[in-house]
């Protein structure tokens, strides 16, 4: 049985907070992304902006340029 969407988002949120810990600009950006409540719930947004390693220890990161481009495009439509 697959994970629920909310379970996936909760794990991504925790991993992003761990990734950004100690670097205040990324930490602030991650908290804004999480607080918004909508973007991380969109599978297309996660596919295009969230990078998760598939080798070695799990590592996660945000492609902020892709996020900016995607959210900017969403506003114009």
Textual characterization of the structure:
With 77 residues, this protein is mainly alpha-helical. The chain has one domain. 64% of the residues lie in helices and 8% in strands. It has four helices and two strands. α1 packs antiparallel against α2. The longest helix is centred in the N-terminal third of the chain and has 16 residues. It is globular.
In terms of DSSP E residues, the strand content is: 5-15%
* Alpha-beta classification: mainly alpha
Task: Give the averaged pLDDT, no decimals.
Answer: 87
**Rg on CA atoms, Å:** 13 Å
Number of strands: 2
Q: Spatial order of the strands in the main sheet?
A: 1-2
Q: Could you give the order of the helices and strands?
A: HHHEEH
Number of domains: 1
At a glance:
By secondary structure, this protein is mostly helical.
Question: Which SSEs are present, and which pair or pack?
Answer:
Layout: H1 5-20, H2 24-36, H3 43-49, E1 50-52, E2 60-62, H4 64-76
Antiparallel strand pairs: 1-2
Helix pairs in contact: 1-2
């Amino acid at each position: 049985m697959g994970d629920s969407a909310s379970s996936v988002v909760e794990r991504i949120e925790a991993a992003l907070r761990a990734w950004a810990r100690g670097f205040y600009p990324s930490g602030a950006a991650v908290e804004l992304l999480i607080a918004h409540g909508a973007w991380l719930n969109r599978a297309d947004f996660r596919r295009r902006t969230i990078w998760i390693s598939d080798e070695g220890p799990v590592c996660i990161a945000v492609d902020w340029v892709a996020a900016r481009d995607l959210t900017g495009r969403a506003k114009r439509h």
